[in-house]
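Re: weekly structure request thread

Next one in the queue (423 aa):
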Amino acid sequence: MGLWPCSLETLELTLFGMSDAQFVRRVTCRVCGSSELDLVLDYGRMPLAGGFFPAEDERSRQVFPMHLVRCEDCTLLQVAETINPETIFSTYSYTSSVNRMLVAHNVELASTLKEMLPREGLIVEIGCNDGILLKPLVRLDAKVVGVDPSDVAQRAADENGWPFVRGYFDRQKASEIQGRFGFADIVVANNVCAHLDDPNRMVEGVAKLLRPDGYFVFEVHYQGDLIETGQYDTVYHEHTCYYSLNSLKWLLEAHGLRIVDVQRIPIHGGSIRVTSVPMASSPPPSLNVQQMLEEEADLDVARFAVFARRHGKLLHDLLANLRRAGKRIVAYGASGRATILLNFCSLGNEFLDYVSDVSPLRYDRVVPGVGVPVLPRERFHEDYPDYALMTAWNYEQEILRDEAEFLNKGNAFIVPLPQIRIV
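Done, posted below.
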């Protein structure tokens, strides 16, 4: 029996003197429509994870309720509250290509996709961002089209000259692309499904755009990794959905697609790459598919909430003790994870001098909610703190290589997850 309210609410909040901010709280599953939603964790009021604005901008202090719930039927984990997408993406500040690990990952994926592609075939990428995958595909002479609603993607298309369709992908956009460029041999959507309030609309469009022998290849942050390693900092309003393979099976089969392969990949703290095809297509499913479906039956969702509450207090107390001892502490990485971690653990300016980051789009802005300033990486190198809280902990090995001098001088990183460690 679901534990979530039984009627749809549209709630209005007046926050920090702003005009009313509207959001919708869902009471049915985004994938299968079930009303059997169990509350997993109440985060309280959280800011938009990517809402990096100057300190004087009131939007940097805007917060919304955030509840993580799980569908009893298809097992999708999801944030109940849906924020207007224009609020999230109109000034989107995330660019994939600032991360070398992501760049290398997409170079490898481009080679894989090119091998799958028939000669003169078309690849359509949904959520192309700054072209981190399109660039290596173009270098391999693949025919590509990018689709994305953000200004980041529009600028990248203008600068690089690849075909681009701006907007949210659905059946209508699929018809537009098919009319202009033809049917797609491969549709790619990496880290897109998590953002969708209605993933069925996107998958319906994919099914319409694909050739009968085409492939839909996509990557999503995997629910199994999130639960097993306690990644509560990865849950935010911009990421509405956290998929199990079972929930993806429900989603795809509803639109005439079936899963033929799944691979676990380390990117983003643990993801899966799913390959699916139209139902009538010939490729048989790999053994990986059934094995993962069976393993998901053992996921302990209740443990996730217990871990998050306990861990948040431990991390807060650790930084409080270091501050009392006179230690200087900064955070390393102004990501969405940083926003949630700092807000959930109540780590503001009294704990952290600043957050170091490599993206110019976030300089001279603050982490939403807690107001900690974001400064260039050069500042970190000019005057090392005693400790750096590795908010971008999912790139630990890359960071440790880059910051060997910081460690050699006797300073230390605090790695918060999966367990708190001092390196």
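The radius of gyration is 21 Å. The chain has three domains: 9-81, 96-299, 302-422.
Next request, please.
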